[in-house]
Structures are given as C-alpha cells and as structure tokens.
Amino acid sequence: MASLPDPGHDPLALGRTDRLRCPHCKFAGRRRSSREITPTHRDIYYQCTNLFCGHTWKASETYDYGIVPSAIPDPRVTLPLRAVSRQDAMEITRPRDTAQPELFDSACPPELPG
User: Fold this and answer.
1) What InterPro entries does this protein's entry cite (predicted)?
2) pTM above 0.70, yes or no
C-alpha cells in the first residue's frame, strides 16, 4: 500500500514555510510573522505545520558578517567583513605564472581577441 504524502514535510502543501523545523516533531515550521529589531537583527515567529503538535516559537535571524562589501553601503549599518586567513591572503596576492594554467581555467570560455 502506497503511503500518503506528508503535508508537514512538503513546503508547498500548506503555504509559506521555511527550512526551520519544529524542534519537537520535526515537521516544517511556517513563518507567521516577523519584526525588525535592528537593520541586522529580526525576530521571527513560527508555527508547526503538524496539526497534532501545534507548537509555536520565536526564532532570531542575525547577520553575522559581510562576505563582499556593498557597492551602496548604508552608513547606519556596520557589519564586519569575514576575516581572511593568512593562507587565503597569500593565495589571493601570489603572482601567477601565465605559462601555467590554473586548475579551472579550462572551465571558463576563452577570451575573444580584440
């Protein structure tokens, strides 16, 4: 006998859901509302989609750090950039031997002359 689909684990079945699951029954959580606390922090209120569970909870979403700086930064927002390790910095700045192709150079299309 084929089992019926589980609507609690189907994000399209019951409207807007997020990847955050109920900590009790592991069904998908549905975002009910949210409010901005600061430009880098938001409180989010969830409801379990399992009707037999009914758990509701508050979660937080916080920006930890920037990876690439914004081209149009908001002066009110101060986010640290991701720390770059010494090894990463050395790799970025090391001179390249033009006669030695890089591992993924063949994955990029060649530049057209002119």
Assistant:
1) Znf_Ogr/Delta
2) no
